[in-house]
Amino acid sequence: MKVIIVKDYDELSKVSAQMLIGEMFQRHERVNLAITAGTTPIGMYEKLIPEVKGKQYFDNVHYYNFDEIPYKSGTREGVTISDLREMYFTPTAIPEERIHILDETNYKEQDKRITEAGGLDVILLGIGADGHYCGNLPGTTNFDDFTTKVRCDEVMKERIAPHFEDRAETPDFYVTMGPRSVMSARHLILFASGEKKAKVMKAFVEGAITAEIPASILKMHPHLTVIIDEAAAKLLDKEK
Question: Which residues have CB under 8 Å from 23's CB, separation 6+?
């Protein structure tokens, strides 16, 4: 595990964008990236868009979402892919044939189709204050799970309800790449920003591998890069 501590959110966004661009340049053949939605990557996408848009030398880059919260009615695309389109795919004009959507209809085939496409080269991950990554929240998946469906209890429904203007659209389940699927990628990049992530980053970097911090399993990956700003790193033992 390599830990990179940067000054602030702007630098974190810049370093993350540079790292993804570097991965895109690594190979002449197909490059497969799984990228994240949420708030942390907003600044990174703003920096990435002008570097990628219209560049034919990135036509070999294919994109995947690693989790999805569907609309209960099924009348529109899920929350994750909708956010990724708004933040990155649409402003960058990524063609549809290079966007490989994971949703409630195809999650059972996710791992097979990724393997047939050559495997994921990179997964860009955020981390929640509770230690979750992708849809792997405490008590929802096991370390040996591949891509799976997670049933939502009432507590989970309340947690995801704010994603929907109409609460009636809150689903009874979501789908996510499980730990075994994520660990199959060649390179994992995890980033975090702000004081609200300081406690979990201390537990992640310095603590044990435990189901209470689902992301802790990622420390067993042979090529894990962690990018955090000074606020998120404030509780770390710098000597360690």
Answer: 31, 33, 121, 122, 187
Mean pLDDT, the chain, whole residue set = 95
Let me know if 130 is a catalytic residue: yes
Catalytic site residue from 62, 67, 83, 121? 67
Q: Pick the catalytic residue: 62, 132, 187, 221?
A: 132
CB contact at 8 A, 175 and 146? no
Using CB atoms within 10 Å of the CB of residue 77, give its burial: 0 to 12 exposed, 13 to 18 middle, 19+ buried.
middle
SS3 62: strand
Residue 106: HSE in the Cβ half-sphere, 13 Å Cα cutoff: 13
Q: Cα–Cα–Cα angle for 127, 39, 181, nearest 5°?
A: 40
Tokens of 5: 């501590």
* Catalytic site residue from 10, 130, 153, 166: 130
CA distance 92 to 85: 9
Counting Cα atoms < 13 Å in the Cβ hemisphere of 214 gives: 27
For the chain, domains (ranges, CATH) are 2-227 (3.40.50.1360)
pLDDT at position 239: 65
pTM, to two decimals: 0.95
Going by pLDDT thresholds of 50, 70 and 90, the confidence category of residue 28 is confident
* Closest by CA position to 140, among listed 202, 214, 198, 201: 214
67 as an active site residue: the answer is yes
